[in-house]
Amino acid sequence: MDSTVYDQEHSSLEDLYSINWVPKEIILKLRKQVEGYQLGLNFEFNEFQVNAYNTKLVFKPPELDRKWKLICEPNRGDLRLLTKKIPVGQYLNFQVGIGHCFHDHTTGWNWKLTTSLGGDGISQIRKKTLLPILPGFDVRIGWNAEYVLPEIHGGMGTGEPIIGMNLGRLYASFDRVEAILTHTT
Questions:
Q1: Which pLDDT tens digits describe the chain residue by residue (185 residues)?
Q2: What is the DSSP letter of 36?
Q3: In terms of Cα–Cα distance, which of 80, 99, 100, 35 is closest to 61?
Q4: Element (H, E) at 6
Q5: Do the Cβ atoms of 66 and 50 come closer than 8 Å?
Q6: Which end of the chain has fewer CB within 10 Å, C or N?
Q7: How far apart, in whole angstroms, are the C-alpha atoms of residue 72 and residue 62?
Q8: Domain boundaries, the chain
Q9: What pTM did the predictor assign?
Q10: To 5 degrees, how large is the angle CA 39–CA 62–CA 83?
């Protein structure tokens, strides 16, 4: 969103919001509990392109004790060990990983600091919502909302009206949909 859109007069309520209902990613996750650990196989499809998919094998401890996870991506030749996201304050998360790429014969580590809030001059929220459908079948929806808050402004002798108002704008999208099938014995 740029400031030119923000400053324009809105002619109707439909101009104040936009929702993209088509997800960018669709993921099928198959999970199996094996001796207290979770073994998973992910099929990730990006933007409905036939050849834009990725497969991941995931190995991690049970949910309550999870401090790490091991991810193998056969298509890319990657093997990574990641820590869980560690909360730093109220809005930040920190994660560290070490990995090896078999195609490039390289080993390295990386880190990232993330938040669910932020944006470039815009307020932004990114969240994941889990919907339990049946025992062993969940759907997780990753969504994003960007908004510009309403503003009241005005002036005298500047060519602006004495009191003016921008009503703001909301853009929302469903970025990913995950179907999670878990088999427990």
A1: 333 343 445 457 777 888 888 898 999 999 998 888 899 999 998 876 667 788 999 999 977 778 999 999 998 899 999 998 888 888 788 899 999 999 999 999 999 887 766 554 457 788 899 999 999 999 999 998 888 877 787 888 777 788 887 788 888 999 999 999 998 76
A2: T
A3: 35
A4: helix 3-7
A5: no
A6: C
A7: 18
A8: 3-183
A9: 0.72
A10: 85
* Alpha-carbon distance values, 136 to 43, 59, 93, 113, 125 (Å): 18, 18, 28, 32, 29
Query: Which pair of tokens denotes residue 68?
Result: 């790490």
- Whose tokens are 């509990």? That residue is 33
Q: Which position has the token pair 């930040």?
A: 92
Measured between alpha carbons, how far is 125 from 116 in angstroms, rounded to an integer?
Answer: 5
Assess contact for 97 and 86: CB atoms under 8 A: no
Q: Contact 57/75 with Cβ under 8 angstroms?
A: no
d(CA 20, CA 24): 10
Amino acid, res. 137: F
Q: Which amino acid is at 80?
A: R
